[in-house]
Design a protein that fits this description.
Elements (H helix, E strand, L loop, with lengths): L16 H20 L3 E2 L5 E3 L17 E3 L5 E4 L4 H11 L7 E10 L11 E10 L4 H17 L5 E7 H10 L4 H12 L3 H9 L5 H9 L4 E2 L2 H9 L3 H19 L6 E4 L12 E7 L7 E5 L13 E7 H13 L7 E6 L4 H10 L5 H4 L7 E4 L4 E6 L4 H7 L4 E5 H7 L4 E5 L5 E8 L13 E4 L2 H11 L5 E4 L6 H4 L5 E6 L3 H5 L2 E10 L1 E5 L1 H6 L1 H20 L1
Parallel strand pairs: 1-5, 7-9, 13-15, 13-16, 19-20, 19-21
Antiparallel strand pairs: 2-4, 3-4, 5-6, 6-12, 7-10, 8-9, 10-11, 11-12, 14-15, 16-23, 17-23, 18-21, 18-22
The structure holds 1-O-pyrophosphono-5-O-phosphono-alpha-D-ribofuranose.
The site of 1-O-pyrophosphono-5-O-phosphono-alpha-D-ribofuranose has 12 residues, from strand 21 and helix 17.
């Protein structure tokens, strides 16, 4: 057995002197600030019963949680969230409450499957909840408190994106979508995947207005004038009410002098399904995912007993420190837009799209250069050429704002990105292939061996679509050889012209997905660099449209 005594587990870290002092100072300042604003501190245990997080509207995916059992065999978890324990405490422990109850906490949370981008599995959060009061004034208070905390820690360049879950829910219900269809649309809106959203909507029999409104959801973000635009699209009473509510909250934030820190995103949908009203996320430079999140959750409290409306937020202290340190080190740098392109087949076509968007790509096209970063100083755009499978990683971490990569890589890497454009080139299919004789007889082979360069795509296909257990054999290339020499019965691989299969006596047996090159964007960059990135996307979209029309 290996000895692990010198190491810390994946996703957790030691905090040394300077950083630790800085962290304690931030926590101290936050505590003082909350107290002076009339919030009282609570502390909940690190260990909770699994049931606290597995029922009602606050249900958290079980794969997210570290689980143990106690001496009586009951399931315990390391808390994956601090709002839910605060709500449990409110319902079960606070007697004779004077409404509203304003509480805050600072503590560590644990997520066993925290999604990429450099996120930790143990992290410190400071947060506040106001329970027992509703209305725009309370929601504006919660958002202003989040803004004040970020400023107090020394952050200046950040943005709070505000949306309203009722806007999305009202429109999905009006369209008559089932819960599963609604969830599918939520996921596509969440990753701004216009291509798949459009093809899904095309299958439904919707009125042109409703079709266009749902299709526009991922682009309904930006300045307050987005609300005017959205209002013109719909007469749905609940959706219009949600817009009016957002206006009320924005008016209060403007009065408080916080107007410059907020923007609107009507496509903001959260994977935490306990939110019922306003919802918000805070973004800043130097970190590829939100550092603040919060919103209104009027149905969560009754899961633990009493009925009460509530609103709250939390700010990630480790992430805040990471952002502060990366902003300090790039203080004197002008802000470049970073673009990661896949080396190889897709590179040259991708370069042309950027070239036609007015960016100088002459040095990029020079194949003799060994430079890893190529900059156009006029448009302030920097290009990196990287291995295709690394593009999603650069973009997810925010090291690149934009990336161009095949959809096969996006599916295989499973990153948390915006997939904004289908670039139309690099078209191919992900297929199950094998000897021709197996055509139509695949289901007769039990416990198949599947050789592939794409183990995640293959696993997902067999587990979720075929509901079949197979043995996946990971190879790094020339996968077609595997069935020829008896290493596997079939392969899961890309088929472009079909020549490789044909020349080796193999054939496509099943098609898993159609693929092509995609433009992906980091989630934070899309908000913070909205104007510059949207300009590039629009120009490339126009070029693609012109090509289609020719
Ligand atoms: C890809 C893919 C197939 C082949 C399909 O391999 O894995 O082997 O191209 O193309 P076709 O349908 O036009 O024949 P790649 O060329 O990337 O090489 P590799 O197998 O060594 O990874």
């Amino acid at each position: 057995m290996e000895n692990w005594k010198f190491y810390t587990p994946d996703g957790v870290q030691d905090t040394l002197f300077t950083e630790c002092e800085m962290k304690r100072n931030i926590e101290h300042n936050f505590r003082m600030h909350f107290r002076s604003a009339g919030y009282r501190e609570v502390e909940t245990p690190t260990l909770e019963y699994f049931d606290v997080f597995s029922s009602g509207t606050g249900r958290i995916e079980q794969e997210m949680m570290y689980k143990f059992s106690d001496k009586d065999g009951r399931l315990l978890v390391l808390r994956p969230d601090l709002t839910i324990p605060a709500v449990r405490l409110y319902s079960t422990k606070i007697k004779n409450k004077e409404q509203p109850v304003k509480m805050f906490y600072i503590g560590n949370t644990f997520r066993s499957k925290e999604q990429g981008g450099g996120r930790f599995k143990e992290f410190t959060q400071a947060g506040a909840e106001i329970i027992g009061n509703s209305g725009a004034t309370v929601d504006a208070e919660i958002i202003s408190r989040a803004i004040s905390m970020a400023k107090l820690a020394g952050l200046e360049d950040f943005l709070i994106d505000i949306g309203h879950v009722e806007f999305f829910k009202a429109i999905i219900e009006e369209a008559g979508f089932s819960e599963n269809e609604g969830e599918e649309i939520r996921a596509l809106v969440d990753c701004k995947d216009f291509t798949r959203l459009e093809s899904l909507l095309n299958e439904k029999n919707l009125s042109a207005d409703l079709h266009n409104l749902i299709l526009s959801l991922p682009s309904l973000f930006g300045d307050v004038d987005i609300l005017d635009k959205a209002e013109k699209f719909t007469e749905n009473i609940r959706a219009v009410k949600a817009i009016e509510y957002l206006r009320e909250v924005l008016a209060i934030l403007t009065q408080k002098g916080f107007r410059n820190y907020v923007s609107i995103d009507l496509g903001l949908v959260s994977s935490l399904n306990y939110y019922t009203g306003i919802i918000f996320k805070g973004f800043t430079y130097g970190i590829g995912f939100p550092i603040i999140s919060g919103g209104r959750y009027d149905t969560l409290v009754e899961t633990y007993g009493e009925k009460a409306c509530a609103s709250g937020f939390s700010i990630g202290i480790n992430m805040l420190m990471q952002a502060l340190s990366s902003q300090k080190s790039s203080d004197n740098n002008e802000k470049y837009l970073n673009v990661a392109l896949s080396k190889g087949r897709l590179a040259s076509l991708a370069m042309d799209l950027f070239g036609n968007a007015g960016i100088d790509i002459s040095e990029l096209k020079d194949e003799s250069t060994r430079k890893l970063i190529i900059t156009d100083e006029v448009s302030k755009v920097r290009f990196f050429l990287v291995k295709p499978s690394d593009v999603p990683t650069y973009v997810e971490y925010g090291a690149a704002d934009i990336g161009v990569v095949g959809r096969d890589t996006i599916l295989e890497e499973g990153k948390n990105l915006y997939e904004v454009l289908d670039l139309g080139f690099g078209k191919c299919r992900m297929c199950v292939a094998g000897p021709k004789e197996l055509y139509g007889n695949l289901d007769l082979i039990p416990n198949k061996r599947v050789a592939t360069k794409y183990p995640n795509i293959a696993r997902e296909y067999y587990e979720h679509t075929k509901l079949e257990s197979v043995e996946i054999i990971k190879l790094n290339g020339s996968v077609e050889l595997a069935p020829l020499v008896g290493l596997s019965e079939v392969i899961v691989d890309i088929v472009e012209s079909g020549r490789t299969l044909k020349e080796n006596g193999l054939d496509v047996l099943e098609t898993i997905a159609d693929l092509s090159a995609r433009m992906v964007v980091n989630r934070v960059s899309m908000k913070i660099e909205r104007t510059r990135i949207t300009k590039i996307i629009d120009s490339i979209r126009e070029q693609l449209q012109e090509k289609k029309e020719k």
